[in-house]
Amino acid sequence: MAGNGKPPVLVVVQLSGGNDFMNTLIPYNSPIYWDCRPVVNVPQDTVIPLNDELGFHPKTAPLKEMFDEGNVALIQGIGYPNSNRSHFRAMDIWHTCEPDTVGTTGWLGQAIRDLDPDGENVLTGVNLGRGLPRAMTAPGVPVASVGDLDGYGVMTSITDTQERDEALDIFKRMYGPAFGTGMVMDYLAQTGGDVLKGADRLAEAPVKYTSNIEYANNAFAKSLKDAARIHLADLGTRILYVAHGGYDTHAAENPTQPKLLDELSTGIADFFDDLRAHDAADEVVMFVFTEFGRRMKDNGSGTDHGTGGGAFIIGDRVKGGLYSEYPPLDPAQWEHGEDLKHTIDFRGIYGTLLEQWMGLEASPIVKGQFEQIDVFA
Questions:
Q1: What is the CATH number of the domain that holds 222?
Q2: CA dist., res. 212 & res. 198, Å (int)
Q3: Can you give the pTM of this predicted structure?
């Protein structure tokens, strides 16, 4: 239980595309940083210093404020051995904890099954977005996917039964090639039906909600507002999933990443302010991740796919600070001669969240024993 006696809730935020870690937590006094990034750098006089070596991107000021309050744990160098640079495969590995084979079961899907073994509550796990992330799939586990909370959930705008069935069939065929078994494909179709079952209960969330917090006018902020509304409606939801896309910055990184980091940090700050205003922040922890970091050297406009990245664990129950080690900047220690090395395995961070926060056994989900961190107060 959380400190206020309520069940712990986990909000997972996926930064799709590979957020550039080295331009998020910046080694602003390192000559190597400036040599590697003559074009794609964050001007030194704009960096928000954390210490003499590292500083936050200027557009993450709200996150830095939460960090100073002790509510943000920054995981440096998160990754795994022999990191894959393909978006699809890398995200698949993060979703299933299966670096060596194509997994069919998501880590959060397994967690939802452990939290609700009989599948009694369709809303134990809720995805805020269209479709269903691989992380939340597990045979027999219902998960609701909500594209528009004010519109009563995914696909409820499709009133004709035949059209709805066709939409579910498309949904099934999208996942079929990756999963490869009829059983799981049938499960995905069933999941689409479960979405519809949960729609009536989800309709309660906007009706019950009032707040003085003014969220920004962007899709990510809206998703976090929906996450807050679902949590505050007390529907028994234990895991919420939100995606923030656009981080594949091969080109035009300087205008693109700052805009995304601004949306990210202001959205997260508003979300937690909203929960605190409702005395509901103590039972919520947020995990923010991306599928990989980016290369050490810029390409003249952006940065290409790399390895070691960064993640955040955020919440009032979190012991804020820096965790693990910043990847070595010495070129002799670069991965593949051009990447940041990973310094901690993401499966250990999942284990930390599962065991220390959610109270679940981690090893069957993450497929082994991995180093955890002491991050909760």
A1: 3.40.720
A2: 27
A3: 0.91
Q: What is the DSSP letter of 139?
A: T
Give the span between the Cα atoms of 60 and 49, in whole angstroms.
Answer: 12
* Among the ranges given (36-50, 107-121, 151-165, 215-229), the one the predictor scored with the smallest mean pLDDT: 151-165
Q: What is the pLDDT of residue 159?
A: 47
> 95 lies in which domain range?
9-366
Quick check: is 356 in a domain? yes
Beta-bridge partner residues of 76: 310
Tally of domains in the chain: 1
User: Contact at 8 Å (CB) between 238 and 117?
Assistant: no
Angle at 148 between CA 91 and CA 274, to 5 degrees: 85
CA angle 64, 66, 67 (to 5 degrees): 60
Question: Tell me: the pLDDT tens digits for 150-190?
Answer: 864 444 444 445 555 665 565 555 555 555 445 445 555 55
State the maximum Cα–Cα separation within the chain, in Å, rounded to a whole number: 62
